[in-house]
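I'll show a typical protein example:
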Amino acid sequence: MILTVDIGNTNTVFGLYDKTNLVYKFRVQSIHDKTTDEYASLLLTLLERNNVSPKSIDGAIIASVVPQLLYTFNRMIKKYLKITPLIVNNQLKTGITMKMDNPKEVGADRIANAVAGVKKYGKPCIVIDFGTATTFDIVNDNGEYIGGIICQGIMLASKMLRSNTAQLPEVSIKKPISVIGTNTVHSIQSGIYFGYLEMINGLLRRVLDEKFKNTAKVNIIITGGLGNDISHDMEQKGTYEPNLTLDGLLALYYENS
């Protein structure tokens, strides 16, 4: 079995693969000051509840956008699983060429997303990840990672609106029945949902117009929390892959182990 770990700003996701099949997936909060032993206790408990012996895990790979937690998880896996995990960075063999000004700046999760997008759907492709930040990762016809877009995630946008206004209430993020709200809650939901949707549509339209002659051949892959909900209303239809980042980590593991 191979353990994949995707450490994000809000959540950390563990994926446990039996060869190439994802058999278990665990999601926990990314708490920056949690210790190695505390995370080990949590992981070992999750494994025990699913009747998985730590000794059955043969390898591990970590992608992290939180440097402090990268150290914690790296140490935890070495100490408790007796494995030295692979760490995702721009030095790994990926099968794609980084055409960024500074490849070291590309986030580990974005590398994994691009690798999985090409492996599962081919090139060219655009991966849109709806996480704490929403990211676009673009791979051209030649298999070159030519760049991307980073913008605030929909949950972050909602939180900023709530924290910077005195009288607006906290609302759940969901598609309202109409664009024009007839009460305060629906008005906020409309602004957040449809405003965010139009941002995604506009950015994607610009990317396609700027870089691709035949837009019909571009594979659009969507992942991340609210990606499935929003993808149904996007102008350009894409394929939703909830485990894309974990699948990319597994591909990187086998390519580099």
